[in-house]
Amino acid sequence: IIDQAFKYLFLSFFRVFLCELSVSISSLSTAPQGRAHGSSFAHRGELRHAKRIVVKLGSAVVTRGDECGLALGRLASIVEQVAMLQNQGREMMIVTSGAVAFGKQRLRHEILLSQSVRQALHSGHNQLKDMSLPVLEARACAAAGQSGLMALYEAMFTQYSTCTAQILVTNLDFHDDQKRQNLNSTLQELMRMNIVPIINTNDAVVPPPEPNSDLQGVNVISIKDNDSLAARLAVEMKADLLIALSDVEGLYNSPPGTDDAKLIDIFYPGDQQSITYGTKSRVGIGGMEAKVKAALWALQGGTSVVIANGTHPKVTGHVITDIVEGKKVGTFFSEIKPAGPTVEQQTEMARNSGRTLATLQPEQRSEIICHLSELLTERKEEILAANKMDMDLAVNAAMLKRLSLSSAKLNSLAIGLRQIAVAAQDSVGRVLRKTRVAHNLELEQITVPIGVLLVIFEARPDCLPQVSALAIASGNALLLKGGKEAANTNRVLHQLAQEALAMHDVREAVQLVSTREEVEDLCRLDKMIDLIIPRGSSQLVKDIQRAAKGIPVLGHSEGICHVYVDAEASVDKVIKIVRDSKCDYPAACNIIDMLRYFIFIFNVKIHAGPRFASYLTFSPSEANSLRTEYGDLECCMEVVDSMLEAVDHIHKYGSSHTDVIVTENEDTAEQFLQQLDSACVFWNASSRFADGYRFGLGAEVGISTARIHARGPVGLEGLLTTKWVLRGDGHTAADFSEHGTMKYLHENLPVVQPPAGQRDSN
C-alpha cells in the first residue's frame, strides 16, 4: 500500500512539473495574440489569431451510435487536436457531454451482472431467462459516468503531456456573483498553469430545464444545456472563439436532408428569420435552434462562433485545427456582413447567367467578344493606370515582368480575342455525329458547354480577358480568382468583361472572386463548380490538384521541356532554336530545362547531367535532379547515344509537356515525333510555339498534360463537352427485343449543321 501511495504521489508531482515546464516553454514561443476586447473576429481568416478557445462537444459527438458508451476513436482525435493547439500557446477549454452515456453503459453492465447472478442462484443452474432492463434515470447515470469520463480525458491528454482539470457547474453557479467570480478565478489559474479545464453541467443534481427559460440579453443566459453553458462560459472568460461540434455540417437554410437545403457558410444576426429548424439530434437535450441562439448570444458578447460537424469520419481528425486555421468548415457567425455577395452566391449567379449565355446565338456571343476586344484598346489608359498601381507594389523583377501590360500587349490581346470571336461562330451546338438507330429514331452527338469553370491564376492580368473570351465563346460560366498582386488591373479588366456581357443581358456570367476566400475553400465547391483550371506556378497547380477532391482539374504541374540535338542537326538551327527555347521568356512553362547534347548558351547557367559530367575534367555544377523545372536562365545538359535513348530518357524524366528534336534526318525526326508521348512534339522548331495564340487558337486557358479530355494548349475546343440527343416517335426498348417488331439499323448519316439560331446548346 505504501509503495502504491508513493508511486501515486510521485506521478502527481511529476505531472505538475510537466505542466509548469510546459508553461515555461509556451511562454518562450510566439503565441496567438487574441482579439481586441469586446469585438469578435470579422472574417474566418482572423480565427488563426484566436488565443482563448472553447470547444463544445455535443452528445452526438461524444457518444456512440447506440447512445450507450463513448465514441473513443472520435474522442481521441479531438483530444489530439486540442492538445496540439494548447501546445501552440493557446488557452483551450472543453465543454463536454457524455457523462450520462458513459454512466448508462456502466449501470447497464452492473444491472445485467446483478440479475444474472440472482437468477443463477434462484434457478440452481446457469440457464438464464430473458432479462429486461429498467429505465435508467439520467441523474443516476450522470453520477455513475462523470468520474469515468474524466478519467478517460485525463488518460488521453496525458499522452500529449497535457494536464486536465474537472469543473462541474450548475445554473446557480452563474447567478451567484461570488460563485461566478470563484469560477472565473479558478479557470484563469488553471489556464495560467497550462492546464485544460474540462467543464460539464453537474447533471447528477441539476434540475430539469424550464421549458420557457431562454437566452435573455447580454448579461443573463439560462444554463439549460451544454450549448448555453459553452456560450455563457465563453463570454464570462472573454474567449476569442467558441467551436460547437455536433452531428451536422453546420447551419442550413432549411432542415438538412430536405430538398434545396444549403449549408450556410456565414451567418449574420439579422438572418435568423430566413431559416427553418428541424428536429434536434438523436441524443442530447438541445437542437440546432438552441445552438443558434447560444451562438448569437456569445457573438453579442464578443466571442466568435463556428458550428461544425464533429462526427464525420473524413474530417473529424482535423475539424478543430481547420477551423482555427481559417478554413471554410461549418458555419461561421459574424457581426459584419460583407458589401458584396458570397462566393457561393457569385457561383450561383454565374451558373444562372451562364445558362442564358449558352442559349445565345453564336453571332451574339461573337459580338460580346468583339466588344471586349474593342474595350481593351479604347480603355487602355484606364487599364495601364491600374496596372501601374500594381507594378509599383511589385516585390521583384520576375513579378514585374509577369504583371506588366503595355499598349502593344493590349493590342496583341485584342487581336487574339477577335480570333476567338470568329471561332465562336462554330462551337456550341455543333453536330459531331449523326446516326439512324432505327426507322424514325435518330441520334446526334453535339457540343455543349462544360458548365461553371473556376480559373485560378497568379500575377498574370493578361490571363483575365483571354479566359473570359474563351468562356464566353464556349457558353461557360466563369469564376476568376486572381493573385492579389494584380488586384487593381484585374478589377478594371473584369469590369470591361462585364460591360461587354451586358450588351446581351448576361453580365453575371463572368465573376471575379475578390473576397478572402482561400483557394482550398474554392476547391471544395464540388456541387457548384464543374472544372478547375489553374494557371501559375507548379506549386499552385499541385496544391489545387490535392485540394480539389471532387472537381476535375485541367492543367500541368510542371513544364520540364527538352531539346534533343541529333548528330545530324544543323548547328545554326541548334543555336537559334535552343536560344529561343530557353531565353525568350525563362519563366514560361514551355521553356526547355534539359538538352540532350552539348552546346554553349550565352548567359545561361549550365548544370551537367551525370554522364555529361563524367566526360569532363572541369565540368559545370552537376544537376541535383534531372526532373527540375528551373524557370530562369538555367538548364541541364546530358549526353545520350541515340534518338531512342533520348526518347526513353524524356519519358523517364520529362513532364509530357513539350519536347523538341533538332535534326536534318527526316526518318529520325518522324520516329521521334511518333514514339515520344508528350502533349506537344516539335521538329526543328522552338518549344515556345506551345501556346494557344501561336497555334491559332486565339488564346488558351492553359496547357494540359492530362491523358483525357483536352491535351496541350487548351483553347475553345477544350472547354466543350458533348451530349447525346435522341429523337424518336414512341419507340421503346421492348420494340427491339426478341419478340419485338423493330430492328436496329445503326446507319451513319451525313452531318449537316443546323442554322445557328436553331442549335441546341444546353
UniProtKB/TrEMBL annotation:
Pathway(s) per entry: Amino-acid biosynthesis; L-proline biosynthesis; L-glutamate 5-semialdehyde from L-glutamate: step 2/2; Amino-acid biosynthesis; L-proline biosynthesis; L-glutamate 5-semialdehyde from L-glutamate: step 1/2
Protein's UniProt keywords contain Metal-binding: no
Transmembrane intervals: none
Record carries keyword Oxidoreductase: yes
GO biological-process terms attached to the record: L-proline biosynthetic process
PANTHER family xref list: DELTA-1-PYRROLINE-5-CARBOXYLATE SYNTHASE (PTHR11063:SF8), GLUTAMATE SEMIALDEHYDE DEHYDROGENASE (PTHR11063)
Protein name: Delta-1-pyrroline-5-carboxylate synthase
Record organism: Scophthalmus maximus (Turbot)
